[in-house]
Design a protein that fits this description.
By secondary structure, the chain is mainly α. It contains 8 helices and no strands. The chain has a domain of 95 residues: Alpha Horseshoe (Serine Threonine Protein Phosphatase 5, Tetratricopeptide repeat), CATH 1.25.40. It is found in: Mitochondrion inner membrane.
């Protein structure tokens, strides 16, 4: 019963009544905020100036991400840190990759461990650099049981 009353109320066209209110006062043609902004270029974002931060060295970057991966507690944190580390215009140091692989094992995330090597392959400048990373990380890969995508899917490589 109540549902049918609500349906009828919802279907009914709204009735507008003319209100006998006080006459409206015309708004100024240009508000003061618009007038103040007239001299600036149009933008929907707030201007932020970041003059206080310093450039991070490669050693500081490496130490920061080693610490980040050492404190990872779940797969989301691991993947977020990997995305942030690979977003920079550099290839992370092998020590960062080692920390990331150990974190992937700690949170039991095998697919992400395989994807770490795919990330390295896409970040390096040439195949020789990728081979050097593989050679340096070979003992850890064998210890953790991480198989490369090239070995899992040889026809795709």
């Amino acid at each position: 019963m109540a549902a049918s009353v609500l349906r009828l109320a919802a279907r009914r066209a709204p009735v507008f009544r003319a209100a006998a209110a006080a006459p409206r006062v015309a708004a100024p043609a240009v508000s003061s905020r618009l007038a103040a902004a007239a001299g600036r270029p149009f933008s929907t974002t707030v201007a932020r100036f970041s003059g206080d931060h310093q450039e991070e060295s490669f050693e500081e970057f490496t130490a920061r991400y080693e610490k980040e991966f050492d404190s990872v507690q779940d797969a989301f944190e691991l993947q977020r840190n990997l995305n942030n580390a690979f977003a920079y215009d550099l290839v992370p140091a092998p020590s960062v990759i080692t920390a990331a692989l150990k974190a992937a094992r700690r949170v039991n995330d095998f697919p992400t461990a395989v994807r770490i090597f795919e990330g390295i392959k896409s970040k390096v400048e040439n195949k020789g650099q990728y081979e050097e990373y593989l050679k340096e990380l070979e003992p850890l890969r064998e210890e953790l049981g991480i198989v490369l995508k090239e070995k899992l899917y040889p026809e795709d490589a």
